[in-house]
Every structure is written in C-alpha cells, then in structure tokens.
Amino acid sequence: MARQRTKSGKIRLAEVASLAGVSLTTASRFFRTPEALSPGKRERVASAADKLGYEPDLAARALASQRTEVIGVLIPSLTNNVFSDVLRGVYDAADGSPFTIQLVNTHYSVLQEEKLLRLFRAQRPAGLMVTGINQTPNSRAVMQSMDCPIVQIMETGPEPIDMMVGFSHSDAAFSAVAHLIAQGRKRIGFLGARMDPRVQRRLEGYRRAMKAAALLEPRFILTTPIPTSVSVGGVLFGDLLARAPDIDAVFCINDDIALGTLFECQRRQIAVPDDIAIVGFNDLEFMAAAVPSLSSVRTNRYEMGRDAIAMLIAAIAGERPARPVVDLGFELMVRQSSMPRHSP
Amino acid sequence: MARQRTKSGKIRLAEVASLAGVSLTTASRFFRTPEALSPGKRERVASAADKLGYEPDLAARALASQRTEVIGVLIPSLTNNVFSDVLRGVYDAADGSPFTIQLVNTHYSVLQEEKLLRLFRAQRPAGLMVTGINQTPNSRAVMQSMDCPIVQIMETGPEPIDMMVGFSHSDAAFSAVAHLIAQGRKRIGFLGARMDPRVQRRLEGYRRAMKAAALLEPRFILTTPIPTSVSVGGVLFGDLLARAPDIDAVFCINDDIALGTLFECQRRQIAVPDDIAIVGFNDLEFMAAAVPSLSSVRTNRYEMGRDAIAMLIAAIAGERPARPVVDLGFELMVRQSSMPRHSP
DNA sequence: CAATCCTTTGGCAGCGCTGTCAATAATAGT
DNA sequence: ACTATTATTGACAGCGCTGCCAAAGGATTG
C-alpha cells in the first residue's frame, strides 16, 4: 500500500478517501462542492474525515486552487480604541466563516499602506478591507488589479473602489456643533489631535456649522498632531482656555479629549455645563457614566466592522450588494454636559 | 521558451532565475540562505528579483517547506482594552520580521481555545502565543505535539508549556491592598467583574493581604460575571455601598471599574480619598488624568506582547532564552485617590 | 602533483491539494 | 428498446517552491 500518512503524522486527504472507499477527487469534492456528491458517498467521506480528524492543508489548497481564504484588513492604528470596536465586529463576522482575518497596521502611513497592499496582492486574498478613502493613486491601482472584493470603511465618499461602509464625519460633527449652537452657545472651541483624514473632516463639519451661524473664529480652533489621550485632552483644553478664555463650549474630536476636558474643568472648578458645555465624538461607554454625563456623537463602529466583513463574504460568494455604499449614520447623544445652563 | 509568467501575470521565481542567469535552485537559495551564494550571483538574483518586482508565493513555499511564517496568537477578548495594548506590542514586534500574526479570539472559552489550537496545528505555525496558564489538559497535549515555540502571556506560574512572560496578579493585587492598609484603611471593598482566571488571582491577592491584617470580611467582596465597563463599576460600587456602608476603600480589579467607582462617588458626593480611597488595576492612561488622580497598579501590557513575540521569533531562529519564564513585574502607582485623608 | 576537502551550483522529485476532462451510471424522452 | 441528457465519479497533471543529492570547480595539503 502506498504511503498514506504524511511524514509529520498528519492525515492527508488521500487517507480519508481510501477509508471512505472513494477516489481522492471525490474526497476533495466533498469539501468544495458537497452537493455534487451522492448522499451515500457524502456521508461516508464525512464520517471518514471525522474519524481520522482530518484537517485540510491550507497551503496545499491555496497553491492548487490559486485562491486563499484570507481576508486582509488594513487598519491605521491599534492604539486608537475606535478600531478595537471595529475589529471586534470584524472578527465576529469572520467567526464561523471559512475566512481568516489577516490584520496589518499602516500606522497612518500611506506609503506603508501601499507596501502592505502589494504584499497582500501577492498572496491573492479572498477579500480586502481598508480604512478610509484617502488611498494614493498607486494604492488604488494595486487594489484595482487585485480582482477580489474590497470594502472601504470608516467613511463614505464618492468613487468607492468597490464597496464602502461608513458615515459622514463632516455631517456628524456638523450636527454636534449645530446642537451646541441651538443650546445658545456662541463661542465654541474645537479640540483636535492626531489630525487624520477623518478628524480633518470633522473639523470641516465644525467650520461649516460655525460659519452658517456666523460664529466662526480661528482662535476657537486648537489642534495638535500628537496622538489623542485623556491627558492630551486636558492640556489642549487648558491651552484653548488661555487663548480664548471667553469660550462657552467645546467640541472634542473624540471622547478621550472630551473626558480630559471634563477633568480639566473639574480641576479648575469650571462648571459643566453651566460655564462650559462639552460634546465628544464616538460615544464610548464611559461617556454616559461620567459626572456630569458627557454628550457625544454615537458612531456604529462595531457594526461597521461587522457589516463590512459580511459584505465582503457575501461578495466573495458572488452576492454583490444592492447598494455598494452603506451609510451607517450616527446619532447625537445629548447628555448633561451640553444641556441648557441652569437659570442663574 | 517555456512558460515564464504564471497565468495571473504573477512573476514566478523561475523568471527571476532566468533573468539572473542562474538556476531555479540558486534563485530559491537566495531567499533561504543568501550567505551560501557567491557575491556575484547574490547580487544578480537580488537585482533581477527587484527589477521584476518578485513577491514569493507563500502558499507554495509553505507547502514545499512544510513550514509557515505564521505566528498564531490566541486572545480571550478583543473588547478588553488590556489586550489592545498587548496586541500593539505583538504587532510591533512582528513588524519588520518575516512573520505574520494570526490573531484568533477564544471568547474566554477553553473549548474554543482547544478547537483553535487544533486548527493552528494543522497549519504548522512557526510559533504560538496563548493567553494565561489555565489551558485544559487537551489543549496542553495539542500544544505539546506542535513542535514549535510557544509562549504563554499575562501570567507567570509553574510548569510553562515552553516559555512565559507575565507577572503575578496575586502579588500585584496584594501590594495594592497592602498599600491601602498601610494608609490606615480598614474596611476595604473588592470590586470584580468578568471573573476570569487572572481576576480570580487578584481576588486571591486581596484575600491574602486582608487576612494578613485580620481585616478580611466576606461582605466586602462583590463580584459579577458580566463583562467590565465603567458603568458596571458604578453599579457595583453602589451595590457594595448598600451592603457595607462603612467601607473606607475599594480595590477595583481594573481601571474601568475604578473610574466607574469614582464617578459614582462624585454622583453621591462621597469624597475621594477622604471618605473612600480607590485603587484600580492596569494603570490605563486616564487614571493619572482623573480628578482626583486615581491610583492603580501599572502592568506592562505592551511590553508583554512585544517581548513574548520577540522571544518567539528568537526561539524560532533557534535562540532559546536563558530563562524561559519572564516576570515583567508591576508597579504600584500611588495617586490622590489613595492618599491619606486630609486632617479633619 | 595527486588526493582531499570545501564551496558553489544545478537537477529533480515531490509538498497535498484542486481543476479539467473523460468515463461511467442513471434517468428521461421518443 | 434506444438514444440523449444529466448526475456521479475518477485519472491525472500540475500549482510554485524547497529539500536533497550529486556535480563541478577551487583551494588546500602532504
């Protein structure tokens, strides 16, 4: 009898086939197109595979079929807890599917992104998920040549490479600032850090809302390229106050900055919302628990990751979505920090 | 001339070889053992590969060599922001190496862990990183049969499967509670959620410290199986207060719970630290920024992920560490929330 | 100068699986 | 009953690369 077992003791498909009394081809077919097998053989291959504890060799499969079951995921940062929610959705959606997530970190660098895309292309992924819509022409070209479904997440915009699931950061910021204006706030600060493309668009939304109310003043806007954190939020707020002591509200580009601002207010005995109103962005869990509770713009991060991967998996199976661009929207969560002032 | 280019237009190694004027074997050797090539050929293969933009086919390589350059990483949760720091270290350490991280989520389930380990084994990873030390006998058996370096992280303990990098959660908790006792606190609550093995050991450390001071009382201990969050922290603290209104300090199993406790104190006008001292665990960034700043036990999560992967990569290269178990320790960060009371 | 050893190179047989095509069996149509 | 289809199955040739072994030089040694 010919060699059945591989050197390493691993069970090969040939062994399953011979135990089931079928050809290698039929055994292989059991895993690819089980419906093409007669019920009898299907059953026999299944039980043989089960009895032997067969696990397919993915490398051999990938080589022979020229396809993989890998979904490449490009994320700009692992630090940012926004992405940890997205990733939860990503992994949850991939769970139970045959697909494997291959996560890589671009560190907010478009060159790194280009390099990683080339690397992915060489491995023929089944699908690809990329963050944002600001890919370089080179990156777009690489993706276009990849012949696998691709989904862009976090934002929506014109000219999707393939599919998109996100929301309008500009509109979300606009609505937050419009809310503050509606509450009677006039001198609304903007606190931004690590000014990535999405944050830039939030700034754009802020500008649009302020300009519409004829309240826009450059001195209200304070940004820094350094990464965000709660401490940075406190420092930024302090700096803003030094520059524009008359502000009566701040829109923070994320919740860490907002929490840092709240702490700084507590430290300086500034009453929130009576002296200063605060609105954050993302609506992390702690915003509702803070004292006072902090207003924020809820974004659907988990759903974004989950739906993006689900769309990808469907597209890999040939089911193109009806609409390739999905806008998950946002919701303004108004809490104590941006409520009307107590009457004096 | 024989087929050079693969159907998909991908450049194969044979093409590089012929452009460089060497045999396929030599070209292959350039990527495996470049030092075995004569400088001249090495140079020619390098420039040919570069000119053609050659990217190796990893599936073919894996199949032929019976090895992969994949490091499997098993993490129990993607929600827990403790792990996002670990993962940052993991990905940073893998960056620049030929190794690829394959991340999977066990959802705190040992059965899931077992299943995932079997799946990994079938793909012959180059190395493996698993969380914690509470693997089932089955899981240990699978790992032992895997013939690749394995590192356990988050904790230290006896009988490493192979290597370990972590710290003693029990000692860390002990030192936090001992600190509170040293500050004159007598009725110290314990707030725990999602009681995973590491949290259990923190409880053990708390018990040890309290018992040593003859202060241990069951009513001080409040735990819940539900996942942690800031809100849950607030609720737990409220419940603890209802049960033991006389407590003068709380040790929280993580910083989210601690922050929730602080907020709940603010809500109830309980003075921190005068009425209640608070100590958290992990020392997330916001702890220092809170008002009052919150004491915590600093754990080296980033370093844990980074060092674990570095050890793995070294071990794959044949460089076994001098000591297979690395204790990264912890540091008690004493801040305002556990300072002495103001004199009355 | 021959014998020996080391360095460098190439030929070749797979790695475990899938895609293609042909063969056969079963079913339907006339 | 006989042919046309369709449903099942199997044989076989690779997928692109590496590991092994042998060959060819070159250097070294006695």
Q: Under the CATH scheme, which architecture of the largest domain in chain A would be assigned? A: 3-Layer(aba) Sandwich
The top level CATH class name of the largest domain in chain A: Alpha Beta
- Low-pLDDT parts of chain A are none
Q: Can you give the helix content of chain A as a percent range? A: 40-55%
- Helical segment count of chain A: 13
The share of residues in extended strands of chain A comes to: 15-25%
User: By CATH's scheme, which homologous superfamily of the largest domain in chain A applies?
Assistant: Response regulator
Quantity of strands of chain A, as a count: 12
Overall 3D form of chain A? elongated
Any idea how many domains of chain A? Answer: 3
Oligomer: homodimer
